[in-house]
Amino acid sequence: MIWNNIEDSIDVTQVSKSIVNDLNLVSERFIIYLPLIFLIFGFIGFIGNIFTYLQAELRSNTCCIYSLCGSIIDIINLSLNLFPNYLAAKYNIYIPWYTSRITCKLNVFILVFLPHLSINFLVMAIIDRFACTCKLTSSIRRLNQLKMVPWMITIIIISSCLISSNAPILYDLMYGYWCISTQPKLNSILYITLSGIMQPVIMLIFVLLTYRNIHQSHRRVGRVTITQRKSLHNQFVVMIFAQVFVTAFLSLQWIIVYTYFSFTEDYTRSNEQWSILFFVFSLTNNCYYINNVKSFYLSILTSHIFRKTFVKGLIDILPRYLCQQYQVSQIQPSMATITRIRPRDISKR
Questions:
Q1: CATH of residue 268
Q2: For residue 333, is it within any domain?
C-alpha cells in the first residue's frame, strides 16, 4: 500500500513537471515571438490604412478620420508597449524605464493611455455611425460635420489622459528597480472598471442604438428607397460593427484573466498551477494587442467601399500600361453585358 502511494505521488510529480516543461517550451518557441509577429502585421495594416483613408474618396469622411487616428495610435502602442517585450525576452535588451520615479510613472502611463486612446477612437467611430443613422432633424447629426472632428479628437485625447492619470499616481519606484503599485487592489479595480468594462459596454450600447436606428429606418421607408438613398456615410456601419465585436471580445478575455490574477495572487498554489496561470496571463495579454493589429484586415473583409478604394489606389500607382490593361479588363465585361441586352431591347420595340 505504501509503495502504491509512493508510485502515485511520483506519477503526479512527473505529470506536473511534464506540464510545466510543455508550457515553458510553448512560451519559448511561440509566445515569445507574438510581439514581433503582431508588430509586422500591425505595420502592414498601418500602411494599408494610411494609404486607403487618405484617398480622395475617404479623406473627408468623419468615420474614416477617427479610424485613421486610431490606426496611428495602434502602431505607436505596438512599438512602445509590445515590441520591447520581445527584445527583453529574446535578447535581454531593456528600455531603462526603471531608473527613476519619473520614467517609472511615464512607462505606466503609456501602458494604460495608448490602448485606452486607441479603443476610444473606435468608440468615437461607432458614435459617428450612430449619429449618421439618426433622423435628419436630430442635433446629434452635427457630429458628422468635418468642423466637429478636431473638437472630438481633442476631447478623446483629454478624456483618455484623465482616465489614465490614476496609473502613474498609484505606481512608484520601489526598492530601487521595481516599478510596482502602491495600492494594488485599488489600481486593479480602477483598471478593470475604466479600461476593461466601461469601453466594451459603451461600444456595445452604441452598436445596439445604431442597429435600432437602422431597423426603424427600414420600417419607415421601402427597401428600394433605402438602396437609392444609400450614401457613403452609411457604408462603414458593418465594418465598425465587426471591429467593435472583435475589440470587445479581446478586451474581455484579457480583463477576465487579469481580474482573476489580481484578486487571487495571494492564494497558495503549486508550481504547476503558477505555471499555468502565468502562461494564460501571458497569452491573453499578447492576444489583447490584436486590437492594434486587426483594423485593416477587418476593414478589407467587411467593407466593399474600403476594398474598392484600396484596390483603386493600388491601380493608380501602377505603371501606366498596367493601369490601361486593368481599365480594359473592367470595360470588356460591361460591353458584353450591353451587347447581350440590346437585341432584347430592339425586339421589344
A1: 1.20.1070.10
A2: no
Report the predicted TM-score, pTM, of the whole model to 2 decimal places. 0.87
- Amino acid identity of residue 192, one-letter, is I
Cα separation, 122 vs 77, whole angstroms: 15
Look at residues 262, 257, 261 and name the one whose alpha carbon lies nearest to residue 286.
Answer: 257
Q: Is 108 inside a domain boundary? A: yes
The alpha carbon dihedral of 292, 293, 296, 300 has a sign of negative
Contact 217, 258 (CB under 8 A): no
Phi and psi angles of residue 181, each rounded to the nearest 5 degrees, phi first: -80, 135
Reading the block at residue 129, the C-alpha cell is 455611425
Q: Number of C-alpha atoms within 13 angstroms, CB side, residue 331?
A: 6
Are the C-beta atoms of 296 and 49 separated by less than 8 Å? yes
**Alpha carbon distance 181, 183 (integer Å):** 5
Which residue bears the cell 493589429?
A: 293
pLDDT in tens, 105-142: 999 999 999 999 999 999 999 999 999 989 888 899 99
Residue 62's nearest CA partner among 232, 296, 290, 244 is: 232
